[in-house]
Amino acid sequence: MKLLILGATGPTGRHVVDLALRSGDSVTTFVRNPAALGDLADKVTVVTGDATSHRDVLAGAAGHDAIISALGRSTSVRADELFTRSSAAAIGAAKEAGISRLVWLSSFGVGHTLGWSSTTQKAIYRTLLRSIYADKDIADERIRSSGLDWTVVYPTRLTHGPAKGAYKAGDRLPMKGNPTISRADVAGFMHQAAHDSEWIHRSPVITD
């Protein structure tokens, strides 16, 4: 499969790239700084650009079967319209390039999933993460109405732990406290979702 990966140098995106390469996929990484790829640069096609630019994303999209976005704001709690702008760019580029499949990383607590959150989670989402989650909500709804074969993924709090390969995934999951899931397992779920039809037009919640 030919994959275009947005946010490929981020902590989750890097896992997606590694998994895709190990599975034999043809990988194009869309990055701001190619040097951040390190030794991966010789194993992938590298496209340099701004993920919020429709023109830039379109330049890298041609000839691919799917787009996987693992974009994030790292440690920042300010959205700066990253998700609204990048979602518009990805949707527009996908349509122009004839790509139907889009797997998009969001966060549990965004949009409709806020109502399913635990008391602990709600306190975090409504304060510290308020700006980012508001921006993600707009982006997610835009993707769901895009007409593409989308999957919007809602992981609980992300960790840097190793992949366990055993986690829960469903359209709705009960929550207690502030559960977690490793970025490695999130990457595994997203990579698999891009290859099959089970989660098309669905918004899975995933957690350990």
From TrEMBL:
InterPro entries: NAD(P)-bd_dom, NAD(P)-bd_dom_sf, Polyketide_Oxido-like
Gene3D superfamilies (alphabetical): NAD(P)-binding Rossmann-like Domain
Molecular function GO terms recorded: biliverdin reductase [NAD(P)H] activity; riboflavin reductase (NADPH) activity
Span of the signal peptide: none
Domain NAD(P)-binding: 7-196
Protein name: NAD(P)-dependent oxidoreductase
Species annotation: Streptomyces montanus
Residue runs in coiled coils: none
Entry-linked Pfam families: NAD_binding_10 (PF13460)
